[in-house]
Amino acid sequence: MTDTIVLIIVGFVLSVAGFSIALRGARTKSALYKAAINVVRDGVVIINRNGRIVDLNYSAQRVIGHPDIVGKSLEAIRPEWSDLVSQEQREAGEEVVVENGNKKRTYNFNTYSLEDTRTHDGNRIVIMSDLTDKRQIENELKKARDACRLMEIKDRFISSVTHELRTPLVSVKGYLDYIMSEDFGPIPAKIKSNLMVVRRNADQLLNLTNDLLDIRRIEAGKLQLALKIMNFSDVVRSCFVEIRPFVGNRNQTVYLDIPEEGLPIIGDAIRLNQVLMNLLINASKFTGEKGQITIGVTEGIDVIEVRVIDTGIGIREEDLERVFEPFATIQKPTYIKGTGLGLSVSRGLVETHGGRIWAESPGEGKGSTFVFTLPKRRPVPWEVA
C-alpha cells in the first residue's frame, strides 16, 4: 500500500472515528464506524489521552496478540512499544519486528494526533502497516542485484583472461606451424614427434579459448554473423570430407544422406560449418570403434532439418537438455574428456541464425541424435538464373 493510499484511508478513518465518537449513542453510526476501520488492512488503534485503548480493528488485534484489550494501556500490554506510541505525532514512522508464536512480521508504526478541537480530548491513532512482504521482496531484489554484479564481475574476468590467453596461444601455434613446415631445414623424427604433441595441445587450448569467447559474445548478444545467401549443401559436404580422417582413425564409418538439389539459406557459412563439425566431433567422441555416424538433411516447407545420428553410448533422459550447458556435470565414461563448450556454442550459433537445436536418445547404450533446424530462404526468380 502506498503512502498516499494510507493517508487517504487514515483521513477517512479519522473523520468517521471523530463523528462516531461524538455520536457514540447512535448504533447506526457506530456500526458504520466499526465497518470502516475493520475494512482497513493496516492495524488501527485509537488511544485516549490517558494512554488507554479506546478502540481497534481486527488487524491491530492480530498484531498485538492479546484479546479483550479495549480500556487497557497499550504500553502495559506491549511495553517495548512505549516509545512508538507515546508521542502525539510520529508520521515519519518506525519499523518494528513483531513475534507471534514462531512467526515474525515487520510493521511500520505511525502515530497521528486525533485531538477534537471542541473537547480537546487528545486522542491518538496508531497505524500499523505490515511491511513483511515488501521487505522480503526488497531483500530478494538485493540478492538478485548482488548476484548480477558478481556475474558481471565473473564475465568481465573470463573475457579479459580469455583475450589475454588467446594472443600468446595464436603466436605459439604460429611458430610451431612454421617450425614443423621445415622451411628452414629438416627436423629429427623424435623432436618432430614431440612437437606434434605440443601443437595438438596448443590447438586444444586455442579451441577452448575460442569457445569461451564465443559463449561470452553469444550471451552478451554481441556475436556478429557474416550473413549472405548460401547453399547449405556445400557446408554439409565440406564437413563430411573434413570429418572422415578424424573418424577413420577410430575405424568409424560416416554416412551422408542429403538432397541432390541445393538448399538455399541466409547464413554464415563459417559458423554453420563450426556447428556441424562440433556435432560430428562430439558424435565420434562418444561412439566406440567401428561405430557409425550419419549426417541426414531433410528439407521442409519453412526449415532445413539436420540430424547427426550416432551408435554411441547414448544419453540419459534427464541429461538431454543439460548436454548444451557449458561445463555441465553429466555422467560419462572417465576416458572421455571435454568441457561441453562445443555443444553450448553450437546452440548459441543455431539460435542466432533463428533455428532450434535439441538432443534425442532412446537411453544409455542406444546411441544419440542431435538435431538442429535452420530457416529456409526461398530464392527469388532473378537469383536462380
Percent helix, as a range, is: 40-55%
Name of the CATH class of the largest domain: Alpha Beta
Q: What is the averaged pLDDT score?
A: 78
* Contiguous runs where pLDDT drops below 50 for at least 5 residues: 1-10, 14-26, 379-385
Task: Kindly report the name of the CATH homologous superfamily of the largest domain.
Answer: Histidine kinase-like ATPase, C-terminal domain
Tell me the span between the first and last alpha carbons.
Answer: 68 Å
Secondary structure blueprint with pairings:
Elements: H1 3-22, H2 27-38, E1 43-47, E2 53-56, H3 58-64, H4 74-77, H5 82-85, E3 90-100, E4 103-113, E5 124-130, H6 132-180, H7 189-220, E6 228-231, H8 232-248, E7 253-257, E8 264-267, H9 269-285, E9 292-299, E10 303-310, H10 341-352, E11 356-360, E12 368-375, H11 381-384
Parallel strand pairs: 7-9
Antiparallel strand pairs: 1-2, 1-5, 3-4, 4-5, 6-8, 9-10, 10-12, 11-12
